[in-house]
Amino acid sequence: SMAAHALRAIGGDTLPLVMLDSDPAAAGSAAHVNLAMADGMRQVTEHLLALGHRRFLHLASAVDSWTFHTRAEALSTLLGPDTELRTVRSPLTPDGARTAMQAALAAPQGRPTAIVCDDDILAAGACKAARRLGLRVPEDLSVTGFDDLALATAVEPELTTVHLPAERVGEQGMAALLAVLEGTPWTAPDIPVTLVVRDSTGPAPTP
Question: Which of 163, 167, 161, 168 is nearest to 190 (CA)?
């Protein structure tokens, strides 16, 4: 995933390029292969709403990229007027996420019941913060990730997260590149993603 200025710097108008997980508008004439990121966030949000959660905290990556902007926009659009949403930004590291979450969760008043994380790495840090504050996951606080990295099943409790089919991205990216090299126009729908429900989410705690 690269920004539009990087495309211009390497001659994106003349080189055969395929952009992965990038803004289609910024890609210009380059072919692109994207995952259904907004739909992944929809699946997360609907799962948490069905569990009764109404106070959300978005632990957002501080990395300025299209994929994270898409996730944030989808989450804010999907939550209705009967919900609360606060956003906290964090470096894309477990320690950065833990520090950000400890500060955000320190005051019990208005504490969220669900933390929606942009990445499994951030979710792992959020779980560490909850544990240090004496909060139980998922009894007191539900936590979701994104990506379904190996880390998602290495932590306890295992993470509810959005599975991104990396091999499918590679396959479709190569198919797109071959089409570009042959001078064939490339179009394809976004690759579907799937919510994997594990033990880090549960019913919203009662007041």
Answer: 168
> Length of the chain in residues, anyone?
207
SS3 content of the chain, % helix, strand, coil (to 5): 40, 20, 45
For the sheet with 142-144, list strands across it: 84-90, 55-61, 114-117, 142-144
Quick one: CA dihedral 70, 146, 172, 191, positive or negative?
negative
User: CATH number for the domain including 95?
Assistant: 3.40.50.2300
- Total domain count for the chain? 2
Give me the helices (H) in the chain, please: 4-9, 24-27, 37-50, 66-78, 94-105, 120-132, 166-181
Using CA atoms, how far apart are residues 69 and 12, in angstroms rounded to an integer?
Answer: 23
Question: How confident is the model over 144-174, as pLDDT tens digits?
Answer: 999 999 999 999 999 999 999 999 999 999 9
Q: Rounded CA gap, 110 and 77, in Å?
A: 21
Residue 2 has phi, psi (to 5 degrees) of -130, 155
